[in-house]
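hi! just following up on the protien thing from before. the input was this:
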Amino acid sequence: TDEVFAAACSPTDASLVISGGKDDRGFLWRIGSAQDFQELT
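and the predicted 3d structure came back as:
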């Protein structure tokens, strides 16, 4: 884990959040389920 530079909610589905940080990795999360995510490379 490292610093998070940005996070944003989907404009069409408020349960989806994307985050990106210093490690140059992005993650797509579903709010309420920390296990339900995808790493974007």
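DSSP finds no helices and four strands in the chain.
Residues 25 and 41 are 6 Å apart (CA to CA).
cheers
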